[in-house]
Amino acid sequence: MGQSEGGFDIANPIIQIRGLRKLYGPHVALDGVDLDIGTGGVGILGPNGSGKSTLFKCILGLIRITEGGGEVLGKDISTMGPDIRSKIGYMAEYDSLDPGLTAVDQVRYAGELLGMRPDQATQRAHEVLQYVGLQDQRYRKIESFSTGMRQATKLACAIVHDPQILFCDEPTNGLDASARQFMLDTLRRTISEGGGTVIMTSHVMEDIQGVCDRVVMLSAGKVVVEGRIDELARQITREIEISVWGGATKLEQWLLLHGHKVRRMGRIMRIEHQGDQTIRAILEGASETGAQVRVLREFEPDLEDIFLLIMRKLGKSAKSASDLKGVPGE
Amino acid sequence: MSDTIEEGGLGEADIEAAYGSGDGDLDTSATVASTPKGQIFEQIYRPWNGSLGPRWVRNYAIYRHHVYGIISGSGHRRYHPFVRLALLVVILGSMTPILMLLLSSMVSGDATGFLNRMWGVNRYNLWGNVLGYFPRNLCMWPLLTALVVGGLVSDDRKNGTSALYFSRPISRLDYASMKWLSAASVLATVILLTYMMYYSAAIVFKGEGWSFIADTIPIFIGGLVAGIFLVFTYTSIGIALSSISTSRFTASVSFLGLILGSKIVAWLVEIQFETTYIYLLSPYDCLAHLGQWLVGLPSNYDHPLIMSVVSLLAMNAASLSIFASRVSSLEVTRE
């Protein structure tokens, strides 16, 4: 058995990529990608053109790779594409459903396309539609479905054969709050109860953080960051976050004058944490400048902060995680 | 005053918990009125341990999905009721000679000779059952092809359902060949099966013997081969047009325009310039020319047969290469 790292079995990777290079003519889409992915949830991040789409296609065994190689579930990605695709589920970002079919017929057909017998596929279609919350709508035509119901149907199609790896491309796209929460809960449950791997892309960092333990960040065809989200968060400089009413500018200037590193977003300021003296300095500064510090807490960076920080370090002009929009089919 | 609150109690401690009227040292907790949250359904992930079938099972699923949809109202690819009705009319229309054969076998006198000439088995009628221009190649076969093939690939482009195929262990060759085969099967069922039924009905209704069969079977086979060429060519052109479009209407209208338009243009050129060479651009006329040779009829065309055959091969090659190229461009991650 491999060593489990918070539910993520990295010692027994199910996806192993080594030195993967993919060129489209002179354009380098992937440049020496090394990757190990075990069971659990993995988020794939990266700005447009970073190579996520190409990486997906390589893992699915859909395109010829230029150099390097890898294995998915012990099968060579260069030569065993169909074997790999029979063991994975893929939930496309855009609509990939026949509007003229009922949900149960669509999911059954998705199962039959994998080689399931019609009776098996029908039974399984009912089971997975119940799982994704469409048990009452399964005989309705897809053309009458809301976006959330379509997303759920796509998920049902992807998990009809109980895949070992589930690829989800923007699974919460266009969903309202409750449908989004249900989708994320379902994906989490698929990992915990299904025991497989969910690899997802999303431009909503919160969604990735809600489902995945790990992230892989791509930039210009290279893996720039790979690891557990909490570990990445720990590597980020600790900061104290304060909310200031009245005299925020004065307080900011006072702190800068006294050698503190300050990031200001309106009335919210984040000051680099250099020990207890930082808090003392904030309070002293507030006292001297007459600023009211309403909230003072240790700032916990989320995935969006990690992403923005890494993009800044790479010299990329990402203003927010919405710059990821359009993945992975850039 | 009690330190704890009994469940459902409404005593002093409730007021203490709600309004904080005491000195704040009591360790109290309130029981807040709540409505039970109904459990809509129990979400359980059920594993599946079945085994997946081999390549032919997957391919047969594609074939079945497209062919059964014409017969079945649900569960397979959806064909609009109007399309299914039109197909029924075409099938019934292509079977009218069988009815006339039955009629001619039942009546006697002068009418029998007329009915036999018009609908009995001979070179002209066998050729006409497959390649006759009116009504078959003007109204029936092009319409049949347009309705069956129009949305075959264009719907996948429009709805993004190509991802459903290519994210599964289905190769582009399997996808293309099964789509082509399903369309060709429907066309063959209507065109060739009704042709075979016509020939069989002539033998049965007229009580023909072995000598009749021996005399007519080569002509019948010639017509059958011509029919196979027709099904092949119409399917290839139709599916190529479907693959370059995202609308089944555009694909269908383009097919009708190509088949009927090229014929009309060639006919107008023939009237004006007294040459049949322009018929080389008309798929129907190339097929008709080849069919006339196969059945043993005198040719209506001035140009040599080999030119029609080459043109036919070029049309099929061009159609299939367009189809192959468009299928290879269908995306999994984004269309």
Structure description:
The complex is a heterodimer of chains A (330) and B (335). Helix content of chain A is 35%, strand content 27%. A six-stranded mixed sheet of chain A has the order 8-9-10-5-11-12. A four-stranded antiparallel sheet of chain A has the order 4-3-6-7. In chain A, helix 3 runs parallel beside helix 5 (147-159). Chain A is built from eleven helices and 16 strands. Chain A has helices at residues 52-59, 81-85, 103-112, 118-131, 147-159, 177-194, 205-211, 229-235, 248-257, 276-289, 303-313, and strands at 4-5, 8-9, 15-24, 27-37, 40-45, 67-72, 75-76, 88-91, 165-169, 197-201, 214-219, 222-228, 239-245, 262-265, 268-272, 292-299. Among the domains of chain A are: 4-87 and 164-233, Rossmann fold; 237-299, Alpha-Beta Plaits, CATH 3.30.70. In chain A, a hairpin with a 2-residue loop joins strand 6 (67-72) and strand 7. Helices cover 68% and strands 0% of the residues of chain B. Chain B is built from 14 helices and no strands. Chain B has two domains: 1-50, no CATH class; 55-328, no CATH class. Chain B has 335 residues and is mainly α. The longest helix of chain B has 35 residues, at 172-206. Chain B has helices spanning 12-19, 55-71, 81-94, 96-106, 110-119, 123-131, 133-149, 154-159, 162-166, 172-206, 210-243, 248-273, 283-295, 305-328. The model of chain B is unreliable at 1-10 and 20-28 (pLDDT under 50). Chains A and B meet through helix 1, helix 2, helix 3, helix 4 and helix 6 of A and helix 2 and helix 9 of B.
CATH structural class of the domain at 4-87 and 164-233 in chain A: Alpha Beta
The secondary-structure element order of chain B is HHHHHHHHHHHHHH
CATH superfamily of the domain at 4-87 and 164-233 in chain A: P-loop containing nucleotide triphosphate hydrolases
Largest interface (CB within 8 Å) is between: A-B, 53 and 42 residues
Order of helices and strands of chain A: EEEEEHEEHEHHHEHEHEEHEHEEHEH
- Form type of chain A: globular
Computed CA radius of gyration of chain A, to the nearest angstrom: 23 Å
DSSP strand tally of chain A: 16
**Uncertain runs of chain A:** 1-7, 324-330
Give the total of domains of chain B: 2
Q: Calculate the terminal CA-CA distance of chain A, rounded to whole Å.
A: 38 Å
The level of helicity of chain B is 55-70%
**Proportion in β-strands of chain B:** under 5%
